[in-house]
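Quick one, T. Sequence first:
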Amino acid sequence: MVVADTSFLIDILQGDERATARLREYGARSEAVWIPAPALEELYFGAVLARHPAAETARVDELARPMVCLPLDAASARIAGFLRAERERGGRRPQSRDAEIAAIAMKHQEAVVTADKRFPRPRGLQIDTY
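Structure tokens:
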């Protein structure tokens, strides 16, 4: 299993060949791609603000339908809070959604798939880039 970062999902929606190839690889290996609730929220936010909200929302629905949605539960929220504080102390501006996605993956002990070079990389989090 792998946890999808928002950037990976956006790249798929935009037809990025690297992202779609990686998604096909997961399918060929029967490896599940899980979507964290914060990433799904970001996708819907963008869809509603798009030029054609109904069509974009339908695209997000279609992409997310086969994926298990992982919630931001109390354990993940705790991890995310620590990650954000650690980044703040290190002088880096913490991004709450990225910290939440990383925390959800860490809680489930799974990798995050992302091409975002600014995505947090705390010790113990595996990153699968494409």
